[in-house]
Amino acid sequence: MRDERGYTPYTWVWNRIENTVKQITDDELPNIHYLSNSNKLLLYNPYQNTTDNKLINDYDVYFYDSKTAVKKRIIQEFDPNTHLFGNVGQTDDFVYYYDNNWWWYNTKLETATNLTSSIHAEWDNKILDEGYQQIAWGIAGISNDKQYLYLYDTYDIWKINVKTLASTKLTKGRESQQVFRFELLTKSKNTSDIRLIDETKNNRLVINDLNTRIKSYAILKPNHTIDLLLTSHDFLYTKLQQAKLTTDFIYLKEAYNLPPELWYKKDMKSEPIQLFATNKQHYLYDWGTSELLHYTTIDGKKLKAAIFYPPNYKKGNVYPAIVRVYENLSQTVKEYHNPSMYNNIGFNVSNLTQQGYIVVLPDMAYDKGFTGASATNSVVGVLNKLIDEGVTEKGKIGLIGQSFGGYETNFILTQTDLFSAAVTGASLFDLVKDYFWNEPYEKTESWRYENFQFRIKKPFFEAPELYIKNSPLYHASRITTPILSWTGKNDTNVPPEQTMTIYTALRKLKKKIVMLRYPEARHFVSSKEDQTDLTRRIEQWFAFYLKNEPKSSWIK
């Protein structure tokens, strides 16, 4: 909180007419959130609480009138990780998420109104992923007259009259298992301002189908009917841009076996015209295909995985398979992956399919407190299905992950012998040590476990058994899979010492492990030389263990 001279910087307001200045911030309340007109402010201290259970701690919020210099506390224990304030443009009012509801604060009357208490909807992710940090789905926009606020729940868009609190659900996403969101094309000058929505005009929507992973563009008309603009089971459409004065629009079209193309349409009903096609060299080579696979985990949860097949794939033949893990990845099923040696985690889908592998990118279903077991259940579930269908078999399956996916890789290997080779990058192995680690940002890592990806939700001293149960180190003796581990020596996200812990632990246990350390790399490998080296070594590692190709000299 000090500048380069050692002084604490404060904010003052200058009244040009009276030629006076007033101090606004101090050591007690050093931070400001500016409202739209900047005559009134919100003050807070992000260091008010010393707990480390969240990335940014809860803090009290004070309303400050710069004319009267009156300061008043209006919110206690506000959680900025859930959602930040949304300014109501051209006013000093604002909207915020608190106590599982959306609130409107009228700065003139100094009153807070709960907008959503009477609506049965899920405004945040706590039911969907109860172990993760609570995150609100967000504010969609506000009408030009500031009478209606548009909010997102898990699936749908709601329209709420901010005076009468009457509400209307504009879409039917919950019924169809689709997620509806506005695609707002204009940006506010103040990034904190809530975007304007004019319901007298057509508004563009993005629709994500959770069952099929199809992304569609649509138009929400003033009468609340929805017309599909672009949709396809076979292609991924992105980057749609519409002309300001006409109905003309352009967009990108791609699939796993189709390099991105730029297309034009005069209107929704006209035939599309291709303007440009990328990667012409793609058509000189055979290419694989992709599909969305539905499967059931070993504990009964329904999930999906993106499956990428090699060129000339034949059903009934058995192929080597590589599974990459990191949270949910099935949404990539229609993405084109340009083959390249320049990969910041050494992994490239198309490199591997061209080498004859099936590549599997599964989703995860996490149970609070049991992150490692959840990842194991999810991955083993999809592999059981592929093995049962004769697509692959034990002895030909590899596992790869980086960062949190590297942790998942490490843990999964302690629970199953399905894998014949694995790669783990910039990953955690000893959760207990990491929990107490003091990172360069002067905050211990405990928040990652109590309210973030590790989803344990309890402090270490309240449930030490959960930390031990989720920590690969304490189960390392069960690992039978050869591991290639790598780290950047300048990684400030995951301590490089964690990779050394993996290496020394498995060496002590006389397990097969090779460690790579890149002197200039951080959490990702950034130089082209290092990217090429890591990609090449990973591919050689899998080729030796999964395809019985000759061992490279560096593999000990």
Low-confidence stretches: none
First-to-last CA distance: 50 Å
The total count of strands amounts to: 31
Give the fraction of residues assigned to helices: 10-25%
The value of Rg in angstroms is: 26 Å
Strand order of the largest sheet: 24-25-27-26-28-29-30-31
Structural class estimated from helices and strands? alpha+beta
Largest sheet: 8 strands, mixed
Q: Which word captures the global form? A: globular
Average pLDDT, rounded to a whole number, is 93
Q: So how many helices?
A: 9
Strand coverage percent: 25-35%
Give a verbal description of the structure.
The protein is of the alpha+beta class. It has helices spanning 173-176, 349-354, 371-388, 404-413, 431-435, 446-450, 464-470, 496-508, 528-547; strands at residues 12-15, 20-23, 31-34, 40-44, 59-65, 70-78, 86-87, 94-98, 101-106, 111-114, 139-143, 148-152, 157-161, 167-169, 178-182, 196-197, 203-209, 215-220, 226-230, 236-242, 249-255, 258-265, 273-277, 290-296, 302-308, 321-324, 358-362, 397-402, 421-425, 483-488, 513-518. A hairpin with a 4-residue loop joins strand 1 (12-15) and strand 2. The radius of gyration is 26 Å and the shape is globular. The two termini are 50 Å apart. The mean pLDDT is 93.
Question: Can you give keywords for this protein?
Answer:
9 helices, alpha+beta, 31 strands
Short synopsis of the structure:
This protein has helices at about 175, 350-355, 370-390, 405-415, 430-435, 445-450, 465-470, 495-510, 530-545; strands at about 10-15, 20-25, 30-35, 40-45, 60-65, 70-80, 85, 95-100, 100-105, 110-115, 140-145, 150, 155-160, 165-170, 180, 195, 205-210, 215-220, 225-230, 235-240, 250-255, 260-265, 275, 290-295, 300-310, 320-325, 360, 395-400, 420-425, 485-490, 515-520. With about 550 residues, it is an alpha+beta fold.
